[in-house]
Amino acid sequence: GAGVSQTPSNKVTEKGKYVELRCDPISGHTALYWYRQSLGQGPEFLIYFQGTGAADDSGLPNDRFFAVRPEGSVSTLKIQRTERGDSAVYLCASSSGQGDSPLHFGNGTRLTVT
Amino acid sequence: SQQGEEDPQALSIQEGENATMNCSYKTSINNLQWYRQNSGRGLVHLILIRSNEREKHSGRLRVTLDTSKKSSSLLITASRAADTASYFCATDASSGSRLTFGEGTQLTVNP
User: Fold this and answer.
1) Residue B36 DSSP label
2) Cβ contacts of residue A82 below 8 Å, gap of 6+?
3) Rounded to the nearest 5 degrees, what angle is found at the Cα of B70, between the Cα atoms of B67 and B75?
4) Which of A4, A48, A99 sits opposite B98 (nearest CB)?
5) What SS3 state is found at A8?
6) pLDDT at position B25 over 80
7) Is B62 helix (H, G, I), strand (E, B) or coil?
8) Mutate to test the interface with B, among A105, A109, A110 (most CBs of B within 10 A)
9) Chain A residue closest in CA terms to B50
10) Domain ranges of chain B
């Protein structure tokens, strides 16, 4: 597609449930990023993939959060045992991975944990 | 923790006026980027300035970088109502590493 696609656009789940958020990057982009954004705040880094491997996962808040990118394209962010504090907009971005190439963001998935 | 801090947090101006937003950061950087975000949407890249550059222009945008003060400014000239959005600065410590975003400036341009 022309841009980064994230699904679903909205997700409401109950506390304690498991959720998966999907990101389709721009075709050919080797770098993929996940960020989390709370209302009125800037995006907070979670994890960065270069190809299939996680190059930097230091932003994942705890072991309930996990992300995969098995074929170096689509990525899934997985959150186990969701808590109300996980409610936020989860943003995915991709880049060509070359030099200082800019990030291209999707419109995000708004996660609400009730 | 956020590397960049934007100032002001909110800015309201009239169409045609110039808007200036500032960003400060704490550690050494490879480059600094500015992004724009409309409500409910993802961020859009505006401009990148490298650590060895002092000023850069793109259309109505002018970015400056002062590495000795660890600060940058974004100037939007002749603002339009369509410029209403949140503006974020972002830094990376090395080429290809993660970007760290600031808290943003909410710009409102009144018609």
Assistant:
1) E
2) A13, A14, A15, A16, A17, A18, A19, A64, A111, A113
3) 90
4) A48
5) coil
6) yes
7) strand
8) A105
9) A100
10) 5-110
Q: What CATH number is given for B5-110 in this structure?
A: 2.60.40.10
Q: For residues A75 and A66, is the Cβ–Cβ distance under 8 A?
A: no
Q: What are phi and psi of B82, to 5 degrees?
A: -70, -10
Q: Which tokens go with B55?
A: 């000023």
Give the CATH superfamily of A5-113.
Immunoglobulins (2.60.40.10)
| pLDDT per residue as tens digits for the range B32-82 | 999 999 999 999 999 999 999 999 999 999 999 999 999 999 999 999 999
What are the respective helix, strand and coil percentages of chain A, to the nearest 5?
5, 50, 50
B37 strand-pairing partners: B43, B86
Q: Which of A44, A99, A103 sits opposite B95 (nearest CB)?
A: A99
Q: Which residues of chain A have pLDDT under 70?
A: 1
- The H or E element that residue A90 is part of is strand A88-95
Give the mean pLDDT of chain B: 92
